[in-house]
Amino acid sequence: MIEAMLLVFVVLTFLLALYSVRLARRLFVVGTNLEAVYSIMYAFRTHVEQIHEAEMFYGDQTLQALIDHSKELLDELDKYEDLMQIVGPEEQVEGDAEEE
């Protein structure tokens, strides 16, 4: 009886470990994709701000609306910053070392 319970426990533990690895891989992919989207949106916002500051387009309401919208999107993505930190703490440590 004890052997059967032990076998069931070992099998369940193994299945749980496999499931955990699968979830960790998915989390890594999602975090990496989210980080890529964040960097693209940041580059877009910077580009639009540069265009808006150009003499030809200074004060254009459409460009100002684009800047505001991109800021809102980045603020929304900031809510998921903890997910990005789970994925890439090594990158942040390397970046900090390069800055010094």
How many DSSP-defined strands?
A: 0
Distance between the termini: 62 Å
Strand content: under 5%
Specify the structural class: mainly alpha
Question: Mean of residue pLDDT?
Answer: 79
Any overview of this molecule?
With 100 residues, the chain is mainly alpha-helical. It has a domain at 20-87. It has helices at residues 2-53, 61-78, 81-87, 89-99. Helix 1 (2-53) runs antiparallel to helix 2 (61-78) and helix 1 (2-53) crosses helix 3 (81-87). The longest helix is centred in the first third of the chain and has 52 residues, at 2-53. The relative contact order is 0.10. Mean pLDDT is 79; it is low at 91-100.
What is shown here, in short?
The protein has helices at 2-53, 61-78, 81-87, 89-99.
Q: Can you give keywords for this protein?
A:
0% strand, mainly alpha, 100 residues, disordered C terminus, rod-shaped
Write the layout of secondary structure elements.
Layout: H1 2-53, H2 61-78, H3 81-87, H4 89-99
Helix pairs in contact: 1-2, 1-3
